[in-house]
Each structure stands twice: as structure tokens, then as C-alpha cells.
Amino acid sequence: MLLVLLSFSCKKNEDVEPPKPFNFRTVQVNGQSLTTTNFRNLGLTPTITVSFSAPVQKENVANHIKLTQGTTSVPLQIAFSGGDTLLTITPQNPLNPLTSYSFTVLPALTSQQGALFSSTLNLDLTTAPDNTDKFPRISDEALLDLVQKQTFKYFWDFGHPVSGLARERDASGDVVTSGGTGFGIMAIVTAINRQFISRADGLARSLKIANFLKNNAKRYHGAFPHWLNGATGATVPFSAKDDGADLVETSYLMQGLLTARQYFNSPTNADEIAFRQVVNELWDGVEWNWFTKNGAETNLYWHWSPNYNWDMNLPIRGWNEALITYVLAASSNKSAIAKTVYDNSWAQNGKMANGNSYYDIKLPLGPAYGGPLFFSQYSFLGINPHDLKDAYADYWAQNTAHSLINYTYCKTNPKQFNGYSADCWGLTASDQQDGYSARDPNNDNGTIAPTAALAAMPFTPTESMQALRFFYYKLGDKIWKQYGFVDAFNLTTIWFANSFLAIDQGPIIVMIENQRSGLLWNLFMSCPEVKKGMKNLGFQSPNLN
């Protein structure tokens, strides 16, 4: 009898099958299959479907399939189908916009046969912006007025109390910027023209700035440092060896001063006459040709230091933001460079050419995809690129192509960053979540800077206006503050800067105005020195006649 029982028991154990392996087969979020663990730009009621290799133990599901935001669990609705192998999961309530969530299937989930889930399934989900308007709708013209006026406050309300110069950023204290001040002076001219301030008040601030630059600010062979102390005029080193002249930043400053000189043109107003005299003294004081290492080379150099001489050794070569430096260096009354310096150093005898197409858009100059958008903006606050050509490019075609490539890249969104679209675009230099750096299609981390799209307004008026509406109406609760739009944001990491920078706020005001009226272009291009200098470099344009 014992032998019979043992034999039966062994046979029974042999007939019991072990649980089948328990894994997932497919995962979809809103119908999109699992090719990445990051799903971005989702609506507020996403649908997650998971197909398992075996029927799921229903009673086990609630504790082992989770959607969380930080440490908070989101209540879920779970529907079963396909013999309990297919789960359709949705949040019970709409999710929060612009929020990161984690979806997890825990290893303790079991099949109906008792097998444990043998895989790890973790998804990162990021919701899209809330599509509701944050402010009442107004006309596009009224919106442009509002953006220019609010952004102007950075230079007017936040200008340094002693010197009037533009602070580098909203947290820089006494540190002011020479180039950003040039942008700010052009913003003052715009504000007078738009009747945000009176001509008398704008002139008083401009004269204050000019007199401080003449009487207090440190200069090196007539050129200014990148940063100064706004109370004393002393140099504030930009980096270890950058403690002297910065010729490119000086160019941005002179671009603004010459524009304002042309604007304050009264033959009888004593203060306007005084302003023009100071500007001319500052302008004629820059020894442009000295920055060819005192004539030793046919290259124009960016920096010179009284302590480190030419050690930084950075020739100013195109294509980038520094065309204005060569234009002004060729336009000087007293120390103009020769055309050979432009051809050899800036154009590198044609090596700055590109000629390739990106998204079927041909780019005449510069790096692949054009580089950050400030390349086509800083110099063209004053230089009018309409019908402007030389031996190397058509500059309207260059700047339009650069802007459209940047726009199309963001619209195409090859890296699937959250929020990128025809409404939300613009890569340039700006604050980032981990510091300050320049972004472009070849160096993109999901950070959008409003200045990029808005300062491209003359080149992409429809696309830039579309971005402006989105920034204001849809993201305004996040990025519209006391001095206009904050410097940057990242909808993938859900980060919003709380900073404002002079070199980013200025181009917004100025380039919107150039699109609306051509004011700053007309003023700068009316300078007789500029007409002569640009012609000497080989530029052709009706604006130079």
C-alpha cells in the first residue's frame, strides 16, 4: 500500500506545471509604442496600455501599478481585456500641466498562475502646457507695444543709479555691461519713439551714460572692457585674463551710441549738442586698427589686457555675432582698418562660407544649422540687412535662412523635447538650468530662450509672432514678469529661469521695432562714417547711397 501511495504522489507532482514566465509584451502611451521610456508633451488624460504575457491577478494590480508625481500617487482607472492580459490605464482626474510623472509596474505584480513580474517597467511622462489663455486677448499691435514697454523697464527702472549703464543681469549689483548698455541705448531711442518716455527724459539718461563713459569708465586704447563697476567705472574682469579691452562688446556699445547720436539731432538743443559731442569723442577714441596687434597682423583681435597683453589670442573670425566690429573698425574717422583685414580675418578669404541646405533651406554662411540665433541678431540691431550684399553673402538671405532653420528644427523636434512646436521655438545663448551657455540645433538640451524667436521678428515675422502669442498667452503665468519675459525655460525638465539679461532683453525691443518701423536700422545706416566704411569693405545696398 505504501509503495502505491508513493508512486501516485510522484506522478501527481510531475503533472503540476510551473507558472508561465510573466512579462510585458507591448506598452503604448496614447497609441505611441515604447521606443523610449520618456513620453513628453502629453495631454492631461493620457491612456497607457500594457499587454502582458499571461493573465494578470486583478486583486494584485492596485498595489503594484503606480502613477506618481514625486511621492504622491495618482488615482487610476484600470480596465481589463484580452483575457486579463491587456490593461488600459487612465488617471481618474486630469493631470497637472507641465508636470513630470512616473509610471511603474512593480516586480511584486503576479499573474493568475502566481508568477512574479520578471521585468522592470518604468516610464517618465511629462504633460504639455495648459492650453488656456493666461491673459485676456488683445490685438497683435497692442501685444507688441506691451512687450516692448515691459521689457524696456529692465533698462529704465533697473539701470544703474550712478552711471545709468545697463546691469549685466537682474542680480549683478554694481556689475554693468558695455555691450548690453549699447543695446539699452537703442532701447531708449525706441521708448522715446513709442512715447513710453519723453524725449527730454531719454536724452537726460543717454547723456548721463555718455558722460560716465567719458569721465569715469576705464578704457584701453579707447576700447571698453566687457564688464565695469557701474558706480566707479573700474574694470570688472570677465574671466582670468579678460581684464582689459573687449573690442566686440565695445562695438555693441558704439552701435548704440552712434544710433542715438543720429536720433538726438537738434541743431539748437544744448543737451543734444553736448550728447553728440561726447559720443563723437568716445567714437574717435577707439583705436580700432591697434587691435591688429598694433599693425603686426591682418587679423583683428577680440581682447587686449594691460596685464596679459595679447595672451587670449582670439582673432575675430566669422561667421558669428561680430560683423558689427568690422563695420565700425572700417568706419573709424581716425583708425580705420583696411579691407584686407576684413577679408583675411573675418571672412577668412571665403572660408566662412557654408552653402549647404538644412530642411531644404540654403544657408550661405556659418556653421552647420547656423549656430545660435544671436549670430544673426546682435550686429543687425543697427546694420540693415535688407538688400545688403558683399562678396560673401546676401545678408537678408543669410539671416532669414538662419532663423527659419532654427524654427524648423524646433518644429520638427528630432529629440522629442517637451513643448517644442511651431509655437514654441528659439535656440540661442541664455541662462540654462545648470548655468549659462549657447544652444543651437547641434547643441540642444531642450532650453528655449524667448529672445531667440522674438529678436528674429524681422526675418520670420509670422513664426515669431506665433511664438510671441504662445509665450504670452499660454506660458505667461510662468515666464511673463516685471521686465518682460524671463531669460529661458525648459519644458522637458520643467524649469523656468527667474533671471533677466541685458544682452537678451535689448534685442527683443530693438528687433521688434526694426520690424515695425525700421527705426534703428534707419538711424544707424544714416551715419556718414558707416556708409563710407561699409562701402570700403565692399558692401552694396541702397541704404548706403
Automatic annotation (TrEMBL):
It comes from the Bacteria. Coiled coil: none annotated. The keyword Transferase does not apply. Residues 315-528 form the Glycoamylase-like domain. Pfam families: Big_5, Glycoamylase. Signal peptide: none annotated. Gene3D superfamilies: 1.50.10.140. Keywords: Signal. Residues 41-115 form the SbsA Ig-like domain. This is Ig-like domain-containing protein.
